[in-house]
Structure formats: C-alpha cells, structure tokens
Design brief:
Rossmann fold, single chain, 12 helices, binds nicotinamide-adenine-dinucleotide, alpha/beta
Length: 346
C-alpha cells in the first residue's frame, strides 16, 4: 500500500486541541473520510488512528470503484467528561480551518463522535463537507444507506453459500441494534429472515419484540447456530480466541474494524467461515453521501452505487475462491490494482 500523501498536525487556535488530517491518497480523486472526535492517551495514538483509518478509506473507495481518495480527520480530545458546547464549536471551527486550507484536496463527513449538525457548522467555513442535514441540502444520516449496503453484501454471500440472494428463511444473528443494526434488522425481517439479536443496551429489546426476533445475551450471540453472524456494534468483535466457538457459515456486517488482529481473517478462512471485509460491507453510507454531495450523482445513481456492493462482493468471493485467497486478500489486491492502474494512467 502507498505512503500517505499529506498529513497535517495542527493545534487549533480556538480550542487548543490537536487536529490531525491524514490524506492517504488522491490517486483516484479528492480524498474523503469522516471526522472522529475521540479521547486518546497521547496525540500520537490519534495520529496512528488517522493514518490507519485514512488508508482504509482509500481501499473502501477503490474496491467500490469510485473516484474518491482516502482521508480522515482525528481530533484528540482531553481526558475528562464531554466537551462543553462552546469548546465543541471551537473544535469544529478549528477543523473547518484546516480543511479549508487544503483547498478541496479533502472533504470530511461524520464519524465516531460527530454527526450531520456538526457538518453544518463546518460548512459555514468550507464547502468540502458531506452529510449535512437534509434540510440544509445535505444527504443527512448515512445509516439507512449503510444498512442497505450491508444487505447487498449479505445477498452476495447468500448467493455464494446458499445459492440464493433471498434472505427468506435465512437465520442471522445481528450484534448491535443501533442506527445501522436496527435498520438492517428491519430490512432482514421484512424479507422473512429469522433473527437472533442482541445489544448491550437492554432498552433495545423493544426492537427484538417488534421484529419477532429472539433476544440473546451479548456474550452468547457469537456462538449462536445461525447461517450468518452480522456484527453491527463496535470493533474487535472477532478474536483469535472466539473464532473457534462460531457456529455460522459467514460473518458479514457493517461494524468497522471487526477483527481484533488481521490474522483472524486467516483463522476464519481455515474454519471455512466466509468473512467479507468490513470496509466493503459497511461502505453503503459513505458511497451514498459522497456520490450525491461530492460527485453530484442523482438519487437513482447513488442508490445503484450502494446496491452495487452485491456485485462487488460476489466478484470478490469468486476471485478469492479461484485464487485460493481469503476475501480480505482479494479485496486488498483489487484496491492495489485499481490504484496502480490509476497512477499509471495519470
Ligand atoms: N452509521 C453509519 O452510517 C456507519 C457507516 C459505516 C460503518 N458504521 C459502523 O457500524 C457500527 C454501528 O454504527 P451505528 O451508527 O449503528 O452506531 P450506534 O452507536 O448507533 O449503534 C451501536 C449499537 O451497538 C451497541 N453495542 C455496543 N457494544 C456492544 C456489544 N459489545 N454487544 C452488543 N451491542 C453493543 C450499542 O448499545 C448501540 O446500540 C459501528 O461499528 C460503526 O462504525 C456505521
């Protein structure tokens, strides 16, 4: 994978906090990637996160075949409670200044710790921002599109594992019923899937009841006897230790950073469990937002691009099987090939 093209480390003049913008690649087009507000023990940990996450965005767009590059912004929050609203606005304006200074080489959107309203504030300084609220002309909350994209990935896996893309009668275990997980569970239930679900927030039991799903404890759900496990909560859900206890044919879902370490992809492969890289299965939201707001695609075209995740995953699984690779290796190779081809023709 290529080196980062540009990394800006800037101490905000209003907030005094460290703002890091990492532009991994603009080979395929101007870079895009979310703004993360998160606590780190040291700003260097925030830098490491920005470098890793921006590289993942490059792969995400390359595999999706879209003309965008990979970038990410991280703001290193201080220890303690939440920022007071005034200081939060200061941080966002500091971020906006850095993005504006890059002159369109990078655009930001929501990520952990930020949402559409924050993008509205940033857009007062720079137009290089996506996912502003719908009433301000943005594409708003990306989670319904992320859920649609994950369903598309699940369909491709269904074709590969069960010979049909239909979710009717399929048994799935959904981990996490937040914005994406609940939306995805609703789509699956509407198609006749049999759902087992969980969330650390017991208040989400209402979603299970609404959908006629079986409620499991967060500790037990990974061992559920189902066709597909769908991680839709936080990261590092698959570890060297717990892969042995899985009783499913595939793991596919929208959660970011599902593997505790990269070698877990090999362990899954050796167990005959299909794992679709999270950066492919979770791409629907950013594909939709970037398509409508940065590439100015119409609603139909944006939706088509999200649904194209099904064919992307189908082709990846096919390539992986033919080459004796894991789907993760096939996805990485596809991203690298597309970047090389674009660089060669530039
Ligand atoms: N929102 C998007 O458009 C989007 C896009 C790409 C990727 N993702 C990823 O999808 C995942 C879900 O995102 P979201 O926007 O729905 O977040 P969210 O915060 O709305 O929901 C996460 C849910 O997971 C639950 N949870 C946390 N830890 C859990 C555990 N150990 N076991 C079971 N449940 C647990 C939380 O209680 C919450 O209900 C995240 O990993 C996120 O990074 C989201």
């Amino acid at each position: 994978m290529v080196q980062h093209e540009q990394v800006v480390i800037h101490t905000g003049r209003r907030s005094g906090l460290v703002v890091i913008v990492a532009i991994h690649s603009t080979v395929l087009g101007p870079a895009a990637g979310g703004l993360r507000l998160w606590r780190y023990r040291d700003w260097r940990d925030g830098l490491a996160d920005a470098l890793r996450l921006s590289a993942a965005m490059t792969s995400k767009f390359a595999v999706a075949g879209l003309p965008s590059g990979g970038g990410k912004t991280v703001v290193v929050l201080p220890e303690g409670g939440p920022l007071d609203p005034g200081r939060r606005d200061d941080v966002l304006r500091d971020v906006a200044d850095v993005i504006a200074s890059l002159g369109g080489k990078y655009a930001t959107g929501p990520d952990v710790g930020t949402g559409p309203d924050d993008m509205a504030l940033i857009s007062e300084t720079t137009p290089h921002v996506f996912c502003r609220p719908a009433h301000l002309g943005g594409s708003g909350d990306s989670s319904p599109h992320t859920a649609q994209g994950s369903l598309a990935a699940l369909r491709a896996v269904g074709r590969q594992v069960h010979g049909t893309a239909s979710m009717d009668g399929r048994r799935l275990a959904v981990i996490g019923l937040g914005r994406v997980g609940a939306a995805l569970a609703r789509l699956l239930a509407a198609e006749g899937a049999h759902l087992t679900v969980t969330d650390v927030d017991a208040g989400k039991r209402g979603v299970a009841e609404e959908l006629g799903a079986v409620w499991s404890s967060p500790d037990d759900i990974l061992g559920a006897e189902v066709d597909i496990v769908v991680p839709a909560a936080l990261g590092s859900v698959l570890t060297r230790q717990n892969v042995a206890g899985l009783r499913c044919r595939a793991v596919v879902g929208p959660a970011n950073n599902q593997l505790a370490s990269p070698d877990v992809a090999d362990l899954l492969h050796h167990r005959g469990i299909l794992w679709v890289p999270d950066y492919v299965a979770s791409a629907g939201g950013v594909i939709h937002a970037v398509s409508t707001e940065l590439h100015h695609a119409g609603a139909d075209e944006a939706r088509t691009r999200v649904l194209a995740i099904e064919n992307t995953v189908h082709d990846l699984l096919d390539t992986a099987r033919r080459r004796g690779q894991t789907p993760a290796q096939a996805a990485d190779a596809l991203a690298t090939d597309r970047l090389r081809a674009a660089a060669a023709s530039a």
